[in-house]
Design brief:
The complex is a heterodimer of chains A (74) and B (171). Chain A has 74 residues and is α+β, with helices and mostly antiparallel strands. Chain A has two helices and two strands; from the N terminus they run αββα. Chain B is an alpha/beta fold and 171 residues long. Chain B is built from seven helices and six strands. In chain B, strands 4-3-1-5-6 form a five-stranded parallel beta sheet. The chains are: A alpha+beta (74), B alpha/beta (171). Strand 2 of chain A pairs parallel with strand 2 of chain B, so a sheet runs across the interface.
Chain lengths: 74, 171
């Protein structure tokens, strides 16, 4: 589930793609940036088996915040 | 919303990668589904080089806590010997980073963005304005430095930044 603001029109999407492609073309010329290209069309399937108890934010060390939003579902 | 088309370009927080590469992890279904939508739409993804550091720490945390990884996998990698055996540490970290690389290889373009001193200042400014933790603020600063508005995460704290086109990805 993802939060959203509005559904973009087809014209918005076309412009968005053009902007994105132009940005990528420029970044390809920037030596500080690494662009990883697609090398496979196979579906991704992880091999590391976790548990239902795993807490992604705890694993990332982001559970020490005493100032969480009041309605934060986390 | 599932009906919302995936953006042409989006910054991914480390939480998306970590949830996606661990099978059965909470939010893994949502994160994998979201990544598949980005892949199918030929969306470009962006991430900070800092993701690589956070990923290593997350892999270490997964290995050194009992409740996060399935017992069979813990036994397979010998994770109970984590503190004593560098071979165990190498095998686990290499397996985890290989999963990250395998996921990146599916996207049309996965763009790895560098950090800088100016972004450190911007990170502090975001911490001041929005009360985020440093890691979260760094990701926002990186996205904004490179002109990216869409950011996806499992971490809801990003809602504090109204300028973001924030995608909260959860099961």
């Amino acid at each position: 589930m993802a939060e959203t603001q509005h559904a973009p029109s087809t014209e918005d999407i076309s412009t968005e793609v053009q902007v994105a492609r132009a940005r990528l073309a420029a970044l390809r010329q920037d030596p500080r940036v690494i662009v990883h290209e697609r090398t496979t069309d196979e579906p991704y399937e992880p091999v590391i088996q976790g548990t239902p108890e795993m807490d992604v934010l705890e694993v990332l060390g982001r559970r020490d915040d005493l100032d969480e939003l009041p309605d934060d579902p986390a | 919303m599932r009906d919302r088309p995936p953006p042409a370009e989006i910054y991914l927080d480390t939480s998306i990668f970590v949830a996606a590469i661990v099978r059965t992890a909470p939010h893994r279904t949502a994160c994998t589904s979201f990544c598949q939508r980005l892949i199918a739409a030929d969306s470009q993804i962006y991430f900070s080089q800092f993701v690589r550091l956070e990923l290593l720490q997350a892999l270490r945390r997964l290995a050194t806590t009992q409740h996060n990884i399935a017992p069979a996998v813990r036994a397979q990698y010998g994770l109970d010997r984590w503190g004593d055996d560098p071979v165990v540490r190498r095998n686990w970290l290499e397996a985890g980073t290989a999963q990250f690389a395998a996921l990146l290889a599916r996207f049309r373009a996965a763009v790895e963005l560098p950090w800088s001193a100016s972004m450190w200042r911007a990170t502090m400014g975001i911490m001041i304005r929005h009360g985020l933790q440093a890691q979260d603020a760094l990701h926002v600063a990186t996205a904004q430095e490179w002109g990216l508005h869409a950011l996806a995460a499992v971490d809801a704290d990003y809602r504090r930044v109204p300028a973001l086109d924030f995608w909260l990805i959860r099961d």
